[in-house]
Specification:
The complex is a heterodimer of chains A (100) and B (486). Chain A has three helices and no strands. Chain A is flat. Chain B folds into two domains: 328 residues, Amidase signature (AS) domain (Amidase signature (AS) enzymes, Alpha-Beta Complex), CATH 3.90.1300; 79 residues, no CATH class. In chain B, strands 1-3-2-4-6-5-10-11-9-7-8 form an eleven-stranded mixed β-sheet, with helices on both faces. In chain B, strand 10 and strand 11 form a beta hairpin. In chain B, helix 2 packs antiparallel against helix 3 and helix 9 packs across helix 12. Chains A and B meet through helix 1 and helix 2 of A and helix 9, helix 10, helix 11, helix 12 and helix 13 of B.
Amino acid sequence: MSAERIELGPDEVRHVATLARIGLDDAEVERLVGELQTILGHVATISALPIADVPPTAHSLDVAGALREDVAKPGVTREQALANAPDPAVDGFRVPPIGS
Amino acid sequence: MAAIDVIGLTAERAAALLRAGECSSEELAGAYLERIEAFDPALHGYLHVDPEHTLAAARAQDQSGNVGLAGVPIAYKDLLSTKGVPTTAGSKILEGFIPLEDADVVARGNAAGLVSLGKTNLDEFAMGSSTEHSAYGPTRNPWDQTRVPGGSSGGSAAVVAAGLAPWSLGTDTGGSIRQPAAFCGLVGLMPTYGTVSRFGVVAFACSLEQVGPMTLTVRDCALLQQVIAGGSERDATCVGLREPIVLPEPGRLDGVRFGVPWAELEDGVDPGIRERFDASLKLATELGAELVDVELPYARHGLAAYYVIAPAEASANLSRFDGVRYGLRVDGPDLRSMYEATRSAGFGPEVKRRIMIGTYALSAGYHDAYYVQAQRVRTLIRRDFDAAFLGVDAILLPTAPTTAFPMGARMDDPLAMYANDIFTLPVNLAGIPALSIPNGLVEGLPSGLQIIGAAHTENTLLRFGAAFEQAIGFDPVPPALRGGAA
């Protein structure tokens, strides 16, 4: 399978993990450097195709959105909405402080 | 009454038994539950089974008279939300999650009187081709328990092949119905994009995925598609069927023109798969069909385009798993460290890999080079298919380039795992339907024939599939289960 060489090091992987809000340990970073180089190297085989004038697909089939009547209907109750929450407070979802 | 032999029992036949009063829905469900209890611990096709719930649902169908398909059991991929019943998507991050609503396809199944036997195993968030990426352990292939059942709908395939359900629903984002159907000797349909509601399907890549049937026969496939297809006011991309699904009868293929993209078959296809494929081409001509060369020059770029578009959509869809509203939470001193710890602990390696690829491809400076370029390739793949369908009624390809591979064989090589979907994922990129039917055995393992059509040609594909099915004469019961054994 053909591949391009992709320059991607541990710092880039850590940066992307921060954007994705995924904590990675050093072993995972090291493994992902190699895996992402391989996968993105294959993906990059399409980057040189001379197709700049081709419109990118927005939807695979030409269909209009199937919209329902804009009528208010009952939704979930507060109790239902909180039923699966890992840390429900009296009236909502409790989370740790935003700043540290 | 003698115990019901459910091995190889089609849903169509099960419905006939129920309507004739030869068994009750409760007895039928009980026969499957007994087999599940005996054989699923080794197979691990199910993630959740609740016998009392199933038997109560079956009794309710018996009391209301068992018309049509009512009372026939079914298994649902655990990516489909089930009200009040745990739905994990094969991920630790959703362990213990209880949906508030049924997925539309489950609601349609309930309305038809289908009785759920349980929820089936899958690669985590449907990301994989072997079901080895389930956070709850792999499923085994009933044809050879040292091999994978395919994926991501591997549990849905294995339970039907092993006689632990008469049929099931899977989802297909890049081949996740068709490839496990091929690996387990079943029929699987990837429907035209937008004909089946995705409401209540745990989202992986919204522009690519559809729910579809996994069955023992082409007619069962049509019957189940009749149940699940149709517009929904809860999925704005779902426009439903252009014409009702018709139950196909096997017949000849006189005057039918099948396209064969020979160039795509030149390398990477196992010789045994190629032999079975060529044999079915010969069958097609004996049934009166004509074979036509077609070119799909951009299909070979489908793998690269797919592994930008699908991870990009996944990285956005999976951002909802943040430890706040549902699922796992791992605490931290502040919000961001809670997010990072939760997602680190809750997602498995393949899911992390895809989120990382998608996040990278969508990040500043790379978006045009990766994502927009991939969507251009997607347009060209659609145009390839459009051009081909001007001259042919359907396109034939193997479903997968190999038979079921040994467990563990591809776990250390993500790209080799992805490459198993080379013949299926261009179909998802184009949003068109494809039917996989069993295409005979290669060294004792099932192979698949994929029949690809233009949008909204499901009835045509099912008719062609029924013709091939009769001509090929495949027995979907694995040898170890024949003659009433095990």
